[in-house]
Amino acid sequence: MNREKKTYRIARIDGDGIGPEVISEAVKVLESAGRAQGLGFEWTEFPFGARHYLESGEILPEPALVELGRHDALLLGAIGDPSVKPGILEQGILLKLRFHFDQYVNLRPAKSYPRVPLPVKAPSMDTVVVRENTEDFYMGLGARCGTSPLEADISAGRSAYTIRGHLRLDFDPPCASAVQIGIATEDAVRRITAFACRTAKNRREESLVLASKSNALSWIYGFWEEVAADEAKKEGMALSIANVDALCYHLVRDPGRYGVILTPNMFGDIVSDLLAGIAGGLGVAAGANIGDGLSMFEPVHGSAPDIAGTGRANPVAAILSAAMMLRHLGEETAAAAVENAVVSFLDESEEKELPWEFGGKGSVSGVGDAIAERTSGSSR
Ligand code: IPM
Ligand code: MG
Fold first, then answer.
1. Whether domain 1-104+304-380 has CATH 3.20.20.70
2. Are the C-beta atoms of 325 and 95 separated by less than 8 Å?
């Protein structure tokens, strides 16, 4: 049968450090899996990151957002470089993309893979963090001052609302201070809870856990607990609530006991790095930022400037993020082919072919080649 080739338009922001190296390998694997499955890709490269910023002063201009929005998905390497003050690019590119495209889900699986040793006593693990990705202490709202009063105009926008207000705090006696505001809105908590419940259902699980902290931060996380519990009930799922500190303790001691972990934004940032460590390393930690518009796929790891250009980067996390992209695009067969190729590569390779991170000497492109080759025969 002559199957018509389906072509996806994918935007690339390779970014900084090891970003370009790992994204090249993810693209190689997607091309190879695509050939086998009758899928094509049209790539548009966007230059944003440290070098572009230092050369042009441009971070992520509005017209680029419009152009990015015309794509089916965005593949992102890593953002951040020691030559730029921390925060400028992370907030100006990464967080800007998440907020602009209302990518309200940050999906971060933490799975054990063959020959990737777990640093904890557990035979295997398969958890996924469903992190709310637009609110909490990530709103960018706050102020600091040298002496009292602390005073600032507050404004922020999300796709569902805008916030405008004025904050004034008088300290007696006057003192230098800073404030950062965390926000939770009902609709945002409901939609991420519903997504987490659906994720658990797809995994054939009947319960999920919310990482919270209402014993100390009652306003925001007490609200979260009530709204999430109500939404989970509507979805017919059992939601248990754990304080995030206790959850971290149990995750290290018995990670196999957890499935879907629903989190507010900041706890999700921390818990997903903890889980990446427990599952064997950032080199296999994939991630997706999903919304109703443009979704973005990026490994959990950063730009790792210390190993950039040495060939020692591990492209597996970027390749697994690309598999998440295929699944999001509805290409389940191709997504599974890429994931199976990663598993068989890790399982069957000689020690020296494995990534440096796992004790081998496999170069970033060598690992990419080996995985790409394993996807090329999967055509039916
Ligand atoms: C992540 C990162 C970002 C975050 C930083 C770079 C802003 O740590 O994607 O986990 O905090 O979300
Ligand atoms: Mg993080």
1. no
2. no
